């Protein structure tokens, strides 16, 4: 899931079925979040037409590969995720703690929704799919087009599908342990 899986260069025309989309979420929902807050919300764009609703929001280099992906996903965070805490966490007054501190709630929602988006990548790989995360887009345009009535905030986008036959280029280098880590 880390060493062999790669970001796809092209997509197979094989569709990602609704059953597979549901299976993705069934895996993602079990990933840990702080206080089990689960602030991520996912908008699955299952057709080229639905992905076209946000085409104008994509930066130019991302347009075609996102449009060609069998499944587009908007990974969002719910700013009022804490309204669900009474059903997700038995700790008393936890909802009120987040509701009374907008800064804490926003930071928690962003951090944990991003984490859940990472779980989505791993869930896709576990199901034999490839994932292509995208940060090059106008979040305000995406929010206006897809989620105005929800209050959700767009975190990042992802294309998901079965990889095409075009092989990826050589793997780009990564930082070694000593450049990226410190032991205390």
Automatic annotation (TrEMBL):
Keywords recorded for this protein, A-Z: Oxidoreductase
Domain of life: Bacteria
Record InterPro entries: Nitroreductase, Nitroreductase-like, Nitroreductase_HadB/RutE
EC number: 1.1.1.298
Sequence ranges assigned to domain Nitroreductase in this UniProt record: 12-162
Molecular function terms, GO-annotated: 3-hydroxypropionate dehydrogenase (NADP+) activity
Protein's name in the database: Malonic semialdehyde reductase
Organism the protein comes from: Candidatus Kirkpatrickella diaphorinae
């Amino acid at each position: 899931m880390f060493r062999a899986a790669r970001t796809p260069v092209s997509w197979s025309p094989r569709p990602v079925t609704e059953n597979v989309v549901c299976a993705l979420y069934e895996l993602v929902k079990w990933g840990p979040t702080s206080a089990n807050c689960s602030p991520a919300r996912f908008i699955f764009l299952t057709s080229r037409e639905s992905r076209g609703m946000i085409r104008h929001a994509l930066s130019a280099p991302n347009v075609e590969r996102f449009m060609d992906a069998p499944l587009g996903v908007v990974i969002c965070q719910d700013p009022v995720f804490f309204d669900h805490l009474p059903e997700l966490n038995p700790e008393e007054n936890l909802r009120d703690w987040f509701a009374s501190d907008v800064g804490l709630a926003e930071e928690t929602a962003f951090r944990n929704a991003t984490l859940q988006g990472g779980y989505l990548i791993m869930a896709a790989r576990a199901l034999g799919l490839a994932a292509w995360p995208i940060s090059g887009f106008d979040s305000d345009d995406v929010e206006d087009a897809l989620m105005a009535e929800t209050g959700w905030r767009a975190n990042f986008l992802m294309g998901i599908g079965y990889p095409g036959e075009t092989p990826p280029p050589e793997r780009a280098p990564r930082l070694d342990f000593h450049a990226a880590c410190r032991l205390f």
